Amino acid sequence: MITICGTGLAGLRTAVELRSLGCDEAIRAIGREGVAPYDRPPLSKNLFGDYDRPLSADGLGDLADVCDEIITAEVEGLDGTSVIANSIRYESDITVLALGADARSTIDGALTLRTRDDAERLRRIDGPVTIVGGGWIGCELASSFAAAGHDVTLVEIATHILPALGEAALPVADALRELGVLITHSIPDSPGTVIEATGAVPNTLGLDLTTDGWGRTTLPRVFAVGDCASMTIGPAGGHWNTALHQATRVAQAIMTDPQDEPIPLTPDVFSTIARRELLLIGHPVGMPITLPDGSRSLWLKDDRLVGGFTIDRPADGVALRRNIGARLTAEAAADPRPLKKILREMP
Ligand SMILES: Cc1cc2nc3c(=O)[nH]c(=O)nc-3n(C[C@H](O)[C@H](O)[C@H](O)COP(=O)(O)OP(=O)(O)OC[C@H]3O[C@@H](n4cnc5c(N)ncnc54)[C@H](O)[C@@H]3O)c2cc1C
Question: Which residues of the chain have pLDDT under 70?
């Protein structure tokens, strides 16, 4: 028996990948939401539109097709590989923790966004909103509320919104301002409804969910995947593509027990803010080389491409995904032509 705790993207994909690798063990999934796995990114980007998307509708698999048993319960802890949920013990030979994260909540009375129920609450807000936290979700929410006609204040204590991007994020701030969003460093006196978007806290059950590159924790036959896991190789959890790729690896590890370390995963984040399609691939470390129109910023280290951020340049996004680590000079990085072309011409 394999027990998967958590029925979000990582839990679903682990079960689907196990089946596609020929796993014929019984699979049990335990989740607390009691609904079929759904997609979280639309909750902030399409809050006032098509926000409720089951993952099965996007071809990512149907939990009921790949699991022998689906249980709605709160997982409380592990005893070896057995799982305790709602005080009941579920015997298990292999356990996969795919418990995701909860929204960080530090401001009394503020709403947060992580689940479909949270989104339903946010949709009912009337009047002005103040969103605290100018990271991806905060900016996406600011964009959705402003487009829906709300007065929006976005509070970010760092110098820029999307602080990890530094000045590369300035065009995103401009686009939000064009939508009418007021960007400030402190909560206004009359904030309206306050929404906190200051990050997420991984659900670890109090365990150390540091894993190797295959999702193996230090506990025998216990794996961790997605936002709850902290892979020592590749990015920590927190992003959709990471959860997707980690699930593939965990399934491979369960089926074949590989002994090598896999190739590190490259961080890969997508977002839609103020109708712009954004992609951040790799590591934005140091000063970026940004095109004059702000549509592409590249980060280099020792004439190697280590990260890139694009705004409405999907082809450059594809080139970035394939070429992190490739040779690129600062002069070439400042060339506004498509990245694929520039990289092809690099000696
Ligand atoms: C609003 C929003 C927008 C996002 N937008 C983007 C984006 O644009 N790009 C991007 O790359 N990423 C985005 N993300 C992140 C992305 O959705 C996550 O990285 C992804 O959902 C991770 O999947 P997961 O399965 O690890 O976690 P989750 O999807 O959170 O699933 C975990 C599941 O486990 C359940 N669970 C937790 N604890 C227990 C317990 N004790 N017992 C039982 N069940 C439990 C949870 O209820 C949940 O159903 C966004 C996230 C949010 C919330």
Answer: 231-237
Alpha-helical regions (H) of the chain: 9-20, 41-45, 63-66, 116-123, 136-147, 170-178, 240-256, 314-323, 330-333, 339-344
Q: Rounded to an integer, what distance in angstroms lies between the CA atom of residue 253 and that of residue 216?
A: 8
Calpha distance 180→65 (Å, rounded): 46
- pTM for this entry: 0.96
Token duo for residue 6: 């958590």
201 C-alpha vs ligand 1 centroid, how far in Å? 11
Q: What is the per-residue pLDDT for 231?
A: 65
pLDDT score at 4: 98
Laid out side by side, the sheet with 94-97 consists of 69-72, 27-31, 2-5, 94-97, 222-224
| Pocket perturbation via mutation, ligand 1, pick of 90, 114, 228, 239 by most ligand atoms within 8 A of CB | 239
Ligand 1, residue 228: give the atom nearest the CA: 26
Ligand 1 centroid from CA 202, angstroms: 9
Compute how many other C-beta atoms are within 10 angstroms of the C-beta atom of residue 121. Answer: 15
Amino acid at 189: D
Domains identified in the chain and CATH numbers: 2-100+203-256 (3.50.50.60), 106-196 (3.50.50.60), 275-344 (3.30.390.30)
